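Subject: complex prediction, re-run

Hi both,

The earlier run crashed halfway through, so I resubmitted it with identical inputs.
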Amino acid sequence: MGKRSRILRRGWAWLGSLRLATALLVVLTLATIVGGIVPQAPITPNASDLYAAYGPFWERLITRLGLGDVFHSWWFFALVGLFAMNLSLCTGRRMRRSLQEVFRPPRFSSRMDGEDVPIDHGRNSEDVACTVMTSLRRAGLRKIDRVRDPSASETQLVAQRFRFGALGADLVHVGILVILIGALLGIFRQEGTFAVTDWERGLRLPACADGTSNDCVPLPYDVQVDDFGVEVYEESGRTKSFWANLSFWEGETQVASGRTAVNRPFSIRGLGFYPWRYGQDSSASAVRLHVVETDRNLVIGEVALRIGETAPVPGTSWTLTALRFFQTFALDDFGQAVDLGNVPGGNPAVLLQVSGDEGTYRDIALPFLPETATQPMYSFLLAESTAPAFLQIHYVRSPGYRVVWIGFILVMVGLAAALYFAPSRVRISINEERVAIHAESRRAGSHLGNIVERIELDLAETSDPDNADERIDA
Amino acid sequence: MRDGVLFFDIATAGYAFAFFAFLVGRILKRRSVSALARGILVASFVAQTVGLVLRGLALGGFPVTNTYESVVFYGWVFALGYLGLLPFRLLPKRLREVIGLFVALLAGAFMALASSPLRSPEVVPLVPALRSHWLTLHVSLVFIGEGFFTVSFIAGILYLVQSRRRRTEAIEGRLEHLDRLIYQTIAIGFPFFTLGGLFFGAVWAKHAWGRYWGWDPKETFMLVTWLVYVLYLHLRLMRGWRGKRTAWIAVIGFVLALFTFAGVNFLLRGLHSYV
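This time it finished cleanly. Structure:
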């Protein structure tokens, strides 16, 4: 054998070795710990945040090694790929042995390294075999094969239990490989979100080739949100669930309709629809404003509009545009308007743009008229505001998940077989002079010691019942 | 009383008494005291079970919806892991008392932690995401697995402590028992942990979020814990590792399991943070 082929052979053996498997398990564990601790994409903080949080050394290390997106990095994929190769080669080698162990009838073994139990001369070996078989059956080893050596001077009884358990570890390995294949199919995954508000019930989102927006969905059919809502607990008023009724259209033909709720997604042609978020959409609020003539402090009219809309100010040539709604209005340290969200007792407000003959200015409408240094011609009082409910729907096509389930089932069956039903085998060699017992088990602390004791006891009892107790004690 | 808190308080006191009784039994070497300690442990476990059932009824679901309930359930599973081993004679007689002592200590500590003012025992209705039958399967199986891991952890610690003593025949025998116990508890718990944590967790995630895996911190550390126990099983079954080295892996595995359960919630926010 040449040097080159020897190196290749060794390399091949190393690729499927247990040593490499152990090393890869350790490295993968460490990499996963790093990915679990360092914030990962898409919420990876930028370099300055990392610098502030971890200091210059770690910031440089995290950025250079790409530790902010461990699970999508080339080196992580390479590790998983190497692991899959190691597992495949190892399983290929193991499985042949395991299948032989399970399906091939036992053969005569000339090497017996078990316990020897001498028996009386002159005792029929067939009689001894019967006693041993009874002992084995009583111990729960019901599958017993009888094999003879070529000269027929010695008989071996091979008793087995849970022999299919020998395939357990291989099933786990195959299951993990199937899971990895399923995960690989995830690269064809398709997902996106769209949202509807109270005022958009019945809105149909047309199918489009690509891009996800609230104008269209990149799906093979139009999606219409017929209705949506929220269920609450009667006693506490807390949210119990939220749901949406959806219908799907190809042109003017409805192809399907159904209801999706939290933990109860609706699926059509491999696409699942999941209610994602439910809440109040302040950016789409409707407001009612009183128009106040500042000089006379007199309400001269009323305007109702939604955020983003423009409406005329009644009795004037002025127009009003609602730019932004604040659930709780506040000014920050720099005098900028900020929304503090839903704060009990907080003041809502609307940012307005007022346009007229004398120019354009911005104003804030609050539920009261604040005292200001400048007095514009018209002021606005926020009389009422309504933020519409919105529901965000997430849609996902996830090819490969069924493959992953199959992988998991294989892993579970394999684990149960390997750990709960580990195979055990007892080989008893009988000739005219002795009985040799050899027991093997893949399970630590197995009951095989008890079986050996039982066989010894039964043999002692049947050969010389009077002295059995003495012999057992000895 | 309907929220089970009274029974949890009884169980907490019971575990404390059981711990002291185990300790006294060990110091005085009186079997009757140790038997009494086991009796108190069983009674505390029953009280905790009643509390959990009442809370489940009040909640209309499986009572593991927030940190308070999870900690109580975790304590319950510790005791279950220990008591579940007793009828199967997996625990040698000489180890029953000392492991019982640690189980009572840990279960009591968890109950005390749950009863601290930091965690509200108020029954809070389930948030939409948790209203699923998968919650019961996912969480209960993970905790059952971790219950067995706890016993393996205690056995691991005992192994490491005992292995520092001078080797006599008795010590050798005890170490062998402990080593076997570590393996047996991990071998029993690991399939539960895999089924509940990884498989059912993935099925539920697919059902709720449309994806079976998302590298959420909880998922990530669940995988880390799983990998450590895979490493343990490989090294023990295939490479024949025994003794101190495998005891250390069992200890590290449990510390990671504990971090996955509690640490991730407080240190690394993610989709699983229902505190």
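Chain A touches chain B through 49 residues (CB under 8 Å).

- K.
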